[in-house]
Amino acid sequence: MNNAVKHSLYTGNGDTGLTKLPTDAKANVAKDDTAIEFLGTIEELNAYLGLLKAKLTLDSPALGEVATIQRQLFDIGMSISGDSLLDDSHTRQLEQWIDGKLALLPEQQGAILPGGDKTAAHAHVCRAISRRAERFAVALHRQSNLEPAILAYLNRLSDYFLVLARRINQRQGVCDNTIAHAT
What we know:
A hairpin with a 2-residue loop joins strand 1 (18-21) and strand 2 (24-30). Helix content is 57%, strand content 9%. With 183 residues, it is mostly helical. It has one domain (28-173): Hypothetical Protein Ta1238, Chain: A. A two-stranded antiparallel ribbon has the order 1-2. Helix 4 packs antiparallel against helix 5 (148-171).
């Protein structure tokens, strides 16, 4: 019996700081290229969403929403090829989820500091990562015309995580930690 490894996780190809885009196996790009930074941030957000999903209670309506967002983030990662699987309907879906949660929340009394319930704190981290993904998406859009629908989606996604964090805190009986707006 041959014990040789048929497939290896590592190739050593990236040891020089170069890698290939998942959509173009021929072209080498630097690992700090904007497209790679964008993909890495989307991957990081998706991984953190897995943690958030593990923290959500089974009765949370957000459980299905977060699972949907994970699939959509995977689709965004594939958008580097120029064929976006996202369109305006995905942003409208986020807006519906945001509006549904906002209808259950008291009016925001100032800037929200991240924290509160542990699960809400995870949603705040997702918000920060989604904002970083959006910044890379803007840079990538300037370089290669990333689909505008992706920019809108990522912009709305950070709003979704803010409202989700507030709703989780509310469900757990934890008040938002706010800073009053300066006048």
